[in-house]
């Protein structure tokens, strides 16, 4: 049969009609894909338990006039340890939300696949600290999506961050990073930001994602997470606007 294999994980279930479901799946092969699962909400569906969001799966799907239809699913690895803590559960669904919002359909992304897998493994071991995990995941996500945030050099003039401890630097979403004292006037959205925040994020961003618990204080971590969340929102909204813009202009 002319089927496709998708390896990865379920990000979201959407009920369809009486017993069907549309599953949004993150796959190694094609990135984010939408698949139709027939009869999955019936009591005796054999796919129901396998298609848990905390399992790494291999799916087979056949093309249809609507969406590819899942014909079989095999669990490769279960990360059910995540469900034993409320915190782990909240974190992984936060991760799914971010991936759903920031990725286009049908675009494979090896770096993001590895990041997701690593995140699942880490949370499954139950040693996660919420803020550290989220900060690291967001940095990894930006890198995988091709947004290279700069926290060590001025994005505009490339000068090394020369301001001293205790001083403030500037961060701009439009410029995607740090701006020096000469350049921040050029960007309307530049906000003065604690320099320690840049040093902290720079250190994290320049090493491979490990989801380690860092010794920084809670205040700094909250600031860092806030800055990254704001940037994520900025990126998501910009993508939506440009998609809308393209659609309108193609129609016109
Ligand atoms: Zn500069």
UniProtKB/TrEMBL annotation:
InterPro entries in the record: ARFGAP/RecO (IPR037278), DNA_rep/recomb_RecO_N (IPR022572), NA-bd_OB-fold (IPR012340), RecO (IPR003717), RecO_C (IPR042242)
Domain of life from the UniProt record: Bacteria
GO cellular component labels: bacterial nucleoid
Keyword Cell inner membrane: no
Keywords (A to Z) from UniProt: DNA damage, DNA recombination, DNA repair
Transmembrane segments: none
Family the UniProt entry places it in: Belongs to the RecO family.
Role summary: Involved in DNA repair and RecF pathway recombination.
PANTHER family found in the cross-reference section: DNA REPAIR PROTEIN RECO
The protein, known as: DNA repair protein RecO
Organism: Candidatus Doudnabacteria bacterium CG10_big_fil_rev_8_21_14_0_10_41_10
